[in-house]
Design goal:
- There is one protein chain.
- Helices cover 38% and strands 25% of the residues.
- It has 3 helices and 8 strands.
- The chain has one domain.
- It is globular and about 90 Å long.
- The relative contact order is 0.15.
- The protein has 210 residues and is α+β, with helices and mostly antiparallel strands.
- The strands form 3 sheets. It has a 4-stranded antiparallel beta sheet with strand order 4-3-8-5. Strands 1-2 form a two-stranded antiparallel sheet. A two-stranded antiparallel sheet has the order 6-7.
Length: 210
């Protein structure tokens, strides 16, 4: 007895199902790749922002450390009183008539050298401001170092320094002089107290990447 010929429809259906399954798998692979790529793109700006914030935190910590160390070794107050009465400016500061502060190099004091080691050598710009009470009450700002306008990512650190009426000015060799702050004729810092305190200066260091 001769068997009837087999139908080819069953084989076609199997191959069609296999192709459909392969298409679904391929689609899932492509979809997974797209999702992965989108996730990577979304993470990139966040990573850059986190890295930038980390650098700014480091710079702020360095500025606080420099101020703390300079206050501890006495060079911070010494720099505030590193004043040339005759020239009416800080020693070796800019000779222009419009300024009495440092514009390129830091003060030639230990505090200035600390700023140089911490920032100048690293290509980081900074300004140093002195904020204190004026003789008539309002707060006054005196530039100590000015290297330009800070960028948007600038950070700052401050440190108060108490200047007493028996504190002496320093000469260009960083030595005490016989002139107390109360006897100085051209000192930028006024007497703003009736006590033994002459004034309180808040030293502010502003740091930013160039």
């Amino acid at each position: 007895m001769v068997s009837p010929p087999r139908s080819r429809s069953g084989g076609s259906e199997s191959r069609g199902q296999a192709h459909t399954l392969e298409g679904l798998v391929a689609g899932l692979v492509i979809l997974s790749a797209v999702v992965f790529a989108l996730e990577m793109t979304a993470v990139t700006p966040l990573s850059a922002s986190t890295s930038s914030q980390h650098i700014e935190n480091q710079q702020e910590a360095t500025a606080r450390g420099v101020l703390a160390a300079a206050a501890e070794n006495g060079s911070l107050k010494q720099t505030l009183l590193f004043w040339n009465e005759t020239g009416e400016r800080f020693w070796n500061a800019s000779e222009t008539s419009a300024s009495n502060y440092y514009t390129t190099d830091p003060p030639p004091t230990e505090f200035g050298r600390m700023l140089n080691r911490s920032f100048d050598r690293e290509g980081i710009a900074y300004n140093v401001y002195l904020r204190y009470d004026g003789s008539d009450g309002p707060r006054t700002v005196q530039r100590l170092v000015y290297q330009g306008r800070p960028s948007d990512n600038a950070v700052r650190a401050t440190r108060p320094v108490v200047v007493y009426k028996n504190d002496s000015l320093y000469d260009h060799n960083e030595d005490w002089t016989e002139t107390n702050v109360t006897d100085a004729s051209t000192l930028y810092l006024p007497d703003a107290s009736s006590s033994s305190v002459y004034n309180v200066v808040r030293v502010e260091v502003v740091v930013w990447r160039i």
